[in-house]
Every structure is written in C-alpha cells, then in structure tokens.
Write a sequence for this structure.
C-alpha cells in the first residue's frame, strides 16, 4: 500500500493540530482556578471544551495513525525484528532522552529548594518511585505526556499478535478493545486504554485495505456532528466536574474514540486551505512540541504564580499555550539549523538524510516531492 500525497499531508496536518491542542489539555491550574468552579462563566466552559473535551481526541487519533502506518505493507511483509530496531531509535530513544532530561532538571531544581508542589518530589522518591518517574513502569513519567510513547511501545511490542487477531477476527477483537477502552475497566499494562483501541483501528484499516477517504464526501456533516458532540460533552463535564459520575466518564471515552473519524473528516476540509497545506509540511515540529511543552508549561506556571492573582488566571490560560507554542517553534527551528544531528535524534526523525529513500517509494514511481511527503508521514506519524 502506497500512501499518496493527500493522505500523507492529512496525517501531518492532524498531528500538528492535535499535538498543539494537547498543549491546552496540559495547561496547569490549582483548586482556586479550576474551571469547574464556574467563577468565570462562559470562559470556564471554553476551558473545559478545549482541555477536557475536544482535544482529548488526540491520543486515540495519534494511536490510529501509528497502527495504520505500521502495517501499511500488510501482515506478511511485516518485519518484527526490523520494526523493533527502528522504533528503539525513533520512539524509545527520544522518550528516554526527553524524560530523563526533565527528571535530572527537576532533581537539580529541587536540590536547590525550587519546584516543590509543581512536580513530584523526585529527590525524596523511593527507588521504585524513581524508576516509574524515569521509565513510566507503573504510572506516568515525570514528563507526563510521554506516557503516550510508553503505551505506543507496548502496542508495537504486541504488534504481531494484534495484527494476527485483527486479520482473522477483526470484529471480535475490536469489540473487546472497544469495551476495554470505554468502560471503567482496570487498564492493566496500559496507562491509557484508548491507545490500544486506536492503534488496533489503524491496523484494521491497513490490513483490510479500508478506503480511509470513503467518507470525505460527507466530511462537513461529520465534522459538525463531532464538534456538536464535543460541545455537549463539555457542557456535561462543566456541570458535573471535577468528580465525574461513571456515565460521564463513559461519554468522555466514547467522544474521544469518535474523534478518530471526526478529526479525519476535519482534516479533509482543512488540508484544502493555504494554512492547512503549510502546516502539513512541518517536519519534526509536532514531535518537538509534544515532548517539550509540558515542562515549559510548568516553568511558565511557576513564574505566573510569583506575580499574578487567581482572578487573572483566564489571561494565563489563553496566553500561555500561545507563548509556549511560539517558544517551541523558535527553539525547534534553532535546533534544526544549529544542531541538525541532535535535532534528528530528539525528534525521532531520519527524513532528509541523503540516499535514504525507501525502496518501495522509488519502485512505486513516486516523484521526489511525493516521496518526500510520503516518507515524512510513514516514518514520523507514528511518533
């Protein structure tokens, strides 16, 4: 299966938009500035809509992209050993570098009496707790968003079993994973259950050669339906949070999973715009934002608490993600220009290396531009 330029562009576009949206999910707040207090009315509803509803779709969507690309050549051509070696460089290594760097920084800061209350107490942690902060063994790592990479690696390790099950028993397998993701069932080895379901949906689309553009003629209707569902969910969350009843948690899980289809439909509309086309051409930026945004948000939160009052928190909420994204774009471009090899390691990217064109792309007769776009999506959308 060759991924053409349109699908490649839409994958890249989804990644940068969803990961930028995840920045809003992780904007810090404390009990005094919780949106569920309703102190700021509609502004707090917007915060719930962005941080607790619409952008919660990012994890299952990114997981679906990963599964789809991993089995793009079919089950018979899937090389497990080669995949493990590749993902060790492109997923595991960046996870370790970004997370351990944050952990070391936190230990140094807390050794100077800085940062307590904002991040876990790393310098007083037991060896078991420290191992989890470093490697996400039992819970989230210290750089919280990187739990996605941890669970993605689990999916990749299980890929041959998942591929075989979804090839032979697709309906039964996806039904079990759907129930696991939606209902309040213990997560087991996974920190985020929707990652397994999203990854498996992507595998299904690849192995069963699903035409993932078949709903494009209905993209506008699907987009409106999905956005409406997200708005209704935000309203329910706003009125019942922060301690949600079980049925709200189930609705939240359902809406997040439906975002796989909803976000893909939105990408069909946005990729036609000039801005959408430009965003789809970013290389490595989305991964850089994903790995670096959380510690940056914490640092900005620490500075804010030194100078501002709780009633001004809405200013922090809406300005900080924009400031963080600006800083991350500038730092990404600087790293790419000044330290290209380090940038390649930190973003898990091998695109742009001379002579590294994949054989299947050249054999397909793709143009150089088409290969570049396809290679970019195939090699980076799983990260």
């Amino acid at each position: 299966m060759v991924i053409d330029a349109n699908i490649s562009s839409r994958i890249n576009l989804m990644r940068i938009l969803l990961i930028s949206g995840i920045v809003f999910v992780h904007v810090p707040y404390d009990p005094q500035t919780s949106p569920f207090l309703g102190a700021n009315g509609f502004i707090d509803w917007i915060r719930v809509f962005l941080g607790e509803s619409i952008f919660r779709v990012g994890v299952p969507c990114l997981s679906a992209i990963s599964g789809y690309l991993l089995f793009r050549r079919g089950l018979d051509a899937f090389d497990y050993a080669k995949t493990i070696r590749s993902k060790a460089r492109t997923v595991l290594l960046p996870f370790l570098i970004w997370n351990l760097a944050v952990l070391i920084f936190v230990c140094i800061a807390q050794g100077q009496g800085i940062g307590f209350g904002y991040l876990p107490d790393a310098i007083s942690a037991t060896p078991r707790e420290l191992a989890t902060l470093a490697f996400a063994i039992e819970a989230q790592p210290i750089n919280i968003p990187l739990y996605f990479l941890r669970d993605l690696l689990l999916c990749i390790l299980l890929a041959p079993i998942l591929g075989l099950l979804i090839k032979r028993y697709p309906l039964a397998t996806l039904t079990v994973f759907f129930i696991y993701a939606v209902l309040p069932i213990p997560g087991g080895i996974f920190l985020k259950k929707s990652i397994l379901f999203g990854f498996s949906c992507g595998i299904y689309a690849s192995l069963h050669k699903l035409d993932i553009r078949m709903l494009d003629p209905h993209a506008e209707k699907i987009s409106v339906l999905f956005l409406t569902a997200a708005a209704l969910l935000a309203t329910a969350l706003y009125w019942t949070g922060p301690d949600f009843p079980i049925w709200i948690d189930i609705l939240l899980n359902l809406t997040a999973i439906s975002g796989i289809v909803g976000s893909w439909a939105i990408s069909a509309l946005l990729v036609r715009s000039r801005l959408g086309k430009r965003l789809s051409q970013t290389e490595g930026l989305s991964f850089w934002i994903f790995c670096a945004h959380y510690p940056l948000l914490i640092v900005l939160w620490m500075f804010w608490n030194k100078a501002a009052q709780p009633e001004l928190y809405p200013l922090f909420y809406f300005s900080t993600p924009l400031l963080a994204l600006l800083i991350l774009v500038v730092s990404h471009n600087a790293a790419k220009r000044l330290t290209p090899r380090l940038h390649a390691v930190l973003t898990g990217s091998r695109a742009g290396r001379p002579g590294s064109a994949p054989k299947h792309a050249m054999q397909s007769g793709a143009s150089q531009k088409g290969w570049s776009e396809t290679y970019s999506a195939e090699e980076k959308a799983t990260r």
